[in-house]
Amino acid sequence: MKKEQLSTDDDLHVVKGQEKELNDKRLHNFVMAISKKGEVEKLTIDEMIEELVVDLPVKLQKEMIRAFERFQKKGLQGADLKEEVVEIRRILKAVYEDPRFEMENKVYAKLQAIKMIDGVFNEENLTAESFRKIARISFDLNGLKAVNDLTGSHGQGDKYLRLMVDILRGDKASAWLTQKGMEAVITIDGGDEFGVILKSEDQIDEKELNDEFIVGIVKKELWESEVSRGILDFDDANVIEAYAGLNRGDLTAKTAEEREIILEEIRKGIPDGYFFRAAVSGGVATLYESFAHIEIEAKDSYEKVLEKAMGSLFDLSDKEMQVDKVNFKVNLAKSQDPHENFLLKVYSRTDSEKELRNILDAYELFLRNVEEAVEEGTASVLPKVIEDLKKQISEIEQRAKKVKK
Amino acid sequence: MTIPNDKKKDAPGEVQPAYNTTFRQRVPYAPEELERLNEMIRQVQLKRVEEQKKPK
Questions:
Q1: Which of A93, A216, A283, B19 could form a disulfide with A212 if both were Cys (CB 3.0 to 4.6 A apart)?
Q2: How many CB atoms lie within 10 A of CB B11?
Q3: With an 8 Å Cβ cutoff, are A327 and B22 in contact?
Q4: How far apart are CA A326 and CA A332, in angstroms?
Q5: What tens digit of pLDDT does each residue of B8-48 get?
């Protein structure tokens, strides 16, 4: 989708009820770009609509075009038509964008991957080697949950995500991709995941992509970022307390002196001069190897084959990312650097807690179901089972407390 | 499907940061796997032609 940056234009201010949108500079620029493009290139309304919906799935395209046809029948033009353009754009944003970072989401990534794969399938001299022109990188930020848990809010976690967004969109990453002649679609795929879909005119060298882009730029910039130090600040007493598994309630009853003694004890387990480093795990796969993982059935439509190819590309790059994550943790564990060993402790603390929490949630759900059965009189023997389960839950809670400590 | 590369040799005294993991180089396709891939490509092309014939 075109996103030309044009100078601001007060014309939109005449549109009633759009004050909120006027604050959204990017949206404003988008509408201006479409309008300007129409004026400069003498596009018809139909062509402008096509410009707006070109990246949409077919079903949604049809819906949008029908909506525009209704607007045209109403005789809308000028500012009124722009109002409708704004409305359409709002829908597109909701479908394709993560509102937190104004970055395209996984839905958009999948759509673009399908378009790229379709492009390769349409090549005249298609061979298996042609499939090396498309790749996906799967990224997963390490320790986002730890950041959220230890700071007690999502504010620092959002800073962590923003740092990754800035690096992926940054000068170094862009320059490398441009130098290699790669078309890249960068997306935030939900939670702590990011993706990059790549299309090149030449075959993509996965090792070069890994060594120079994933490791040499993205991982390195994150790891060495000054910003990451402030994301999780181990000079902050609240972070230290949370790391040690202490609740506010545990310490409020203590005097300032007692509290400082406890903190000092915890600090002994933290390496001198420790600071948090941002890190991401990344896996890459090309269509070349991922395509071999699918089965094409006689009943499959061409569209279905495209979806399977896209799905396989996503799955394989995700799996490679998971392998990379394990390797990273192994490196942290084996490292001679106590700061790296400690980073693993920060991750592991929340991993273990999460695992126990999942078990506990499962038990509690089961318990609720059993209690309902007893209330309905359908399970007279169950009170004993409930008692046993309560004991088990209590034991798990004790284990969780030990992990925290 | 994949084999690890030889671990990168660090220069004397140089320590690689933990994020610098070992890249897993793919094993090339065996001839029969490549044959299957080419057959799949043929099927894709047939389906694409069928798709294009469909009335829009």
A1: A216
A2: 7
A3: yes
A4: 10
A5: 444 556 788 999 998 888 888 999 999 999 999 999 999 98
CA dihedral defined by A10, A11, A16, A20, rounded to 10 degrees?
-40
The separation between the first and the last C-alpha atoms of chain A, rounded to the nearest angstrom, is 51
Cβ(A288)–Cβ(A128) under 8 Å? yes
CB atoms within 10 A of CB A300: 17
Measured CB to CB, residues of chain A less than 8 Å from chain B are 121-122, 126-128, 206-207, 210-211, 215, 219-220, 222-223, 279-280, 289, 291-292, 294, 296, 300-303, 305, 320, 323-324, 327-328, 331-332, 335-337, 340, 343
CA–CA separation, A218 vs A222, rounded Å?
6
Closest CA–CA distance from residue A301 to any residue of chain B (Å):
7
Please name which of A2, A107, A1 lies closest in space to residue A57, comparing C-alpha atoms: A107
Write out the two tokens for A179.
């130098």
Q: Cα(A366)–Cα(A390) distance, rounded to whole angstroms?
A: 11
- Mean pLDDT per segment of 10 residues, for chain A of length 405 residues? 32 33 44 57 64 68 72 69 70 80 90 92 91 97 93 92 96 97 94 96 95 97 94 90 75 80 88 95 96 92 93 96 93 94 87 64 68 67 68 71 59
| CB distance A55 to A93 below 8 Å | no
CA atoms within 13 A on the CB side of B51: 17
Q: Which residues of A touch B17 (CB under 8 A)?
A: 223, 340
Q: What are the CB-based long-range contacts (under 8 Å, 24+) for A92-100?
A: A92/A1, A92/A52, A92/A56, A93/A27, A95/A56, A95/A60, A96/A55, A98/A188, A98/A190, A100/A158, A100/A161, A100/A188
Structure tokens at A321: 């990312």
Q: Do B19 and A220 touch (CB under 8 A)?
A: yes
Distance in Å, alpha carbon of A133 to nearest chain B alpha carbon: 15
SS3 A197: strand
Distance from the A130 Cα atom to the nearest Cα atom in chain B, whole angstroms: 11
The string of DSSP letters for A75-92 reads T--HHHHHHHHHHHHHHH
Q: Give phi and psi for A323, each to the nearest 5.
A: -60, -45
Task: Assess contact for A108 and A96: CB atoms under 8 A.
Answer: yes
Smallest Cβ–Cβ distance between B45 and the set A126, A323, A343 belongs to A126
Burial A339-370 (b: 16+ CB within 10 A, else e): bbebbbebbebbbebeebeeebeeeeeebeeb
Q: Decide if A64 contacts A55 (C-beta within 8 A).
A: no
Q: How far is B8 from chain A (nearest CA, A)?
A: 11
Using a CB–CB cutoff of 8 Å, tell me whether B3 touches chain A: no
